[in-house]
């Protein structure tokens, strides 16, 4: 759990701080996996809203109301008091998100990005602060996307460990088509009810799911998907895949495999490792049915089974082949290599699409800023190069 800037009292009667109450919730969630939390709405207090405001980015784009963190802060206490009153009265209504299309790295396609108004970001962040204390106790170790203290490189290391030290001969590189746009609302609420029975919290989440989007001045309904752009979206996405994929893999798939099987997931990017081809093929076939049950589907053109790993390298060479295929995960191309001592080693290099997109972006920046002093250009170039390392 990310620490609060400072502990704020939730009430005079108990004297407990926000942090203490959240820690108690996390402890109970860890000890009792069947516990349902029926009293969470009271944690949506001024202390939590202050913490949520602190975590907001000061440079983020504004929603359809034009409100920014800087302008909201001018009358912060009054604004938070007004927001808290509406939350307690349940008169708070999320505003439709402003939809913006941004370039998708490595292709000519555009991907939608939702930009909520600032107060919606605040409430979403406060909800995420509360709920992550429950779900961080439930999420499995193979899940790395948008979780506190779990970075993309941790997912890469986990996958590298599975391939490099376990009995892995086949990879299922799975891609879910338009994941965040196709989350089924009814299924998501059903999943949330496994842990949350506070009707106020559930009702607030439903309002965010149904808030709609504004595109070119027109409002469109959102009958499926999660509200992208806010801090609640990644958490809800993880909850959905926790029940849809992670638990199913650990409790069903692994038990029905003849050999070893492992899963690494970062948000909706998934790589499954298997010892035998038959297990990999059965998982691939079952995955299509499993995702279909929850209104999702795999991208057929991006999902494939490949022979990969130290056993694959050995078997392919015995058949007269050269080397295993490669696959991309989190912006890196994974390929089979050798260490200086001649042992098998999983190696990475920047994915071609990712590299191409960065080169184009850098070229555009140079063209747009070529009139700057040479010293300023080199400072920025060095800064970009350091971030890329």
TrEMBL record:
**What Pfam families does UniProt report for this protein, alphabetically?**
RVT_1
Key words of the record? Nucleotidyltransferase, RNA-directed DNA polymerase, Transferase
The family database entries (CDD domains) matched by this protein are listed as: RT_G2_intron (cd01651)
Q: Where is the Reverse transcriptase domain?
A: 83-334
Q: Which GO terms describe its molecular function?
A: RNA-directed DNA polymerase activity
Report the domain of life of the source organism.
Answer: Bacteria
**What EC number(s) would the UniProt record show?**
2.7.7.49
- Protein name in UniProt: Group II intron reverse transcriptase/maturase
Give the organism the record lists. Desulfosporosinus nitroreducens
């Amino acid at each position: 759990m990310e620490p609060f800037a400072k502990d704020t009292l939730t009430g005079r009667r108990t004297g407990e701080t926000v942090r203490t109450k959240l820690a108690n919730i996390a402890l109970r969630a860890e000890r009792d996996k069947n516990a349902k939390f029926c009293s969470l709405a009271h944690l949506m207090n001024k202390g939590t809203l202050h913490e949520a405001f602190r975590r907001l980015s000061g440079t983020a784009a504004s929603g359809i109301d034009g409100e920014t963190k800087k302008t909201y802060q001018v009358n912060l206490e009054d604004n938070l008091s007004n927001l808290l009153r509406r939350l307690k009265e349940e008169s708070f209504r999320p505003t439709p998100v402003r939809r913006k299309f941004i370039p998708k790295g490595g292709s000519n396609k555009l991907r939608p990005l939702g930009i909520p108004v600032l107060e919606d970001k605040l409430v979403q962040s406060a909800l995420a602060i509360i709920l992550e204390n429950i779900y961080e106790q439930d999420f499995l170790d193979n899940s790395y996307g948008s979780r506190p203290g779990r970075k993309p490189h941790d997912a890469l290391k986990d996958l590298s460990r599975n391939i490099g030290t376990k009995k892995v001969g086949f990879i299922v590189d799975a891609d879910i088509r338009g994941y965040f746009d196709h989350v089924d609302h009814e299924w998501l609420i059903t999943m949330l009810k496994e842990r949350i029975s506070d009707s106020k919290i559930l009702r607030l989440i439903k309002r965010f799911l149904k808030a709609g989007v504004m595109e070119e001045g027109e409002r469109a309904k959102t009958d499926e998907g999660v509200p992208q752009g806010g801090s609640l979206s990644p958490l809800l996405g993880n909850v959905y895949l926790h029940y849809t994929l992670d638990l199913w893999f650990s409790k069903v798939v692994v038990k029905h495999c003849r050999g070893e099987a492992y899963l690494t997931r970062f948000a909706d990017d998934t790589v499954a490792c298997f010892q035998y081809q038959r297990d990999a093929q059965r998982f691939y076939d079952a995955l299509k049915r499993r995702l279909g049950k929850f209104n999702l589907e795999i991208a057929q053109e991006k999902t494939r089974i490949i022979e990969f790993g130290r056993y694959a390298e050995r078997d392919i060479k015995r058949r007269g082949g050269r080397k295993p295929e490669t696959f991309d995960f989190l912006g890196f191309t994974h390929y089979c290599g050798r260490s200086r001592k001649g042992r098998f080693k999983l190696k990475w290099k920047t994915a071609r699409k990712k590299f191409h997109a960065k080169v184009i972006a850098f070229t555009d920046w140079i063209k747009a800023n070529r009139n700057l002093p040479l010293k300023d250009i080199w400072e920025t170039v060095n800064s970009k190069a350091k971030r890329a390392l």
